[in-house]
UniProtKB/TrEMBL annotation:
InterPro entries: BHMT-like (IPR017226), HCY_dom (IPR003726), HCY_dom_sf (IPR036589). Its cofactor is Zn(2+). Keywords: Metal-binding, Methyltransferase, Transferase, Zinc. The lineage of its organism: Eukaryota, Metazoa, Spiralia, Lophotrochozoa, Mollusca. PROSITE patterns: HCY. The keyword Repressor does not apply. Pfam families: S-methyl_trans (PF02574). SUPFAM superfamilies: Homocysteine S-methyltransferase. This is Hcy-binding domain-containing protein. Signal peptide: none annotated. Pathway: Amino-acid biosynthesis; L-methionine biosynthesis via de novo pathway. Residues 11-316 form the Hcy-binding domain.
């Protein structure tokens, strides 16, 4: 029993990942709340934290129920620049502290880890010192609030440039009072960051600079992220992270932003992405591959939902509470164990679900 969380805490981030340990992590809050009608596609600012904190808490709880072992505070795009964009800069600290408080409550009640969250600033310029100072300041305030609210570690994610990822890491080291950093790069269409560094080299540099976990998230789907994460595994010594989007990307369309509608050819991002969602089997295969490769911090990003998180958790040997309701088609009256059902025409019923030829 842990005195801090007063529950069955299984140790810190570093303890849980030591000796090849793993963590299952649910992300995807922005897309999920957009889908539900509580924030707007485009700006993608987590306004739901202010307007319906009860719903944010419930989604955290639902993800933990499905197997997430990290509760990620919903502060993604809750930074100064994004709030300026929607004219709500005055709510910046309130939004951040409220998101952190909700995540902490759920994490402490469930023995999971509580993570703060920073991300790409959308304004970073590698050749502009003034802007870099501004970005560092944006990171600083979010990091300080996260530490003040008791975050166990901080996730810095979806960086397209190694320079910005490095600035995030350095900011966590400078202002984070020693909390570990998980830094993930957004894996775009090329195998290089926007500042022309192969992703595996970028991850190694982040690891050598002190990130506790490094890896890739967002952007690519399972099929196109796996070849890259294999290179990251070969290049890095410590724990690595892999959290793709659950969309069926392929060699020609390697990212969710490159996917197009099959009939019209129009970009599918973000409005028509549902037409490209992965099957559960694809997610299961993805999780198995991650296990074989040696991915320690595993999950899904934009487009994730609880049924996917449960699959990842189960492949990684967990049995979260939601596993009680994992599919059991033997109980189905048409497809199940015939001896259990008093249905005399099930073969016909199955046959008639298909087109008549
Ligand atoms: Zn994402």
């Amino acid at each position: 029993m842990c005195v801090t969380c007063v529950k069955y805490c299984r140790g810190s981030l570093l303890e849980r990942l030591a000796n090849g340990g793993s963590l299952v992590v649910a992300e995807g809050y922005v897309f999920e709340f957009e889908r539900r009608g509580y924030l707007q596609a485009g700006a993608f600012v987590p306004e739901v934290v202010i307007e319906r904190p009860d719903l944010v808490k419930i989604l955290h709880e639902e993800f933990v129920h499905a197997g997430s072992e990290v509760v990620l505070a919903f502060t993604y795009y809750g930074h100064r620049e994004k709030l300026r964009l929607i004219g709500k800069e005055d709510q910046l600290e309130t939004m951040n502290r409220r998101a952190l408080t909700i995540a902490r409550e759920v994490a402490r009640a469930t023995g999971t880890l509580f993570a703060g969250n920073i991300c790409n600033s959308t304004v970073y310029r590698r050749d502009d010192e003034e802007i870099k100072a501004k970005v560092e300041d944006m990171f600083r305030e979010q990091i300080e609030w996260a530490v003040d609210e008791g975050a166990d570690f901080i996730v810095g994610e979806t960086f397209g440039e190694l320079g910005e990822a490095m600035l995030a890491l350095e900011s966590i080291k400078k202002y984070g009072k020693g909390v570990p950093a998980v830094i993930t790069l957004a894996s775009a269409g090329r195998d290089f960051t926007f500042d022309e560094v192969p992703f595996e080299d970028a991850c190694r540099q982040l690891e050598e600079s002190g990130a506790a976990v490094v890896g890739l998230n967002c952007g690519r789907g399972p099929k196109t992220i796996l070849p890259l994460i294999k290179k990251v595994r070969a290049s890095c010594k410590g724990p690595i992270a892999c959290l793709p989007v659950p969309y069926s990307t392929n060699e020609d369309y390697p990212t969710m932003q490159s996917l197009t509608d099959k009939e019209t050819g129009k970009p599918a991002f973000p409005y028509d992405l549902p037409g490209h969602t992965c099957t559960r089997t694809e997610i299961e295969e993805f999780a198995k591959s991650c296990q074989e490769i040696g991915v320690n911090y595993v999950g899904l990003c934009c487009g994730n939902a609880s049924h996917y998180t449960r699959i990842v958790a189960e492949v990684y040997g967990r049995r979260p509470p939601a596993s009680r309701f994992s599919p059991d088609m033997s109980k189905h009256f048409m497809y199940g164990d015939k001896s259990k059902f008093n249905q005399y025409h099930t073969e016909d019923m199955v046959k008639f679900t298909k087109a008549e030829k």
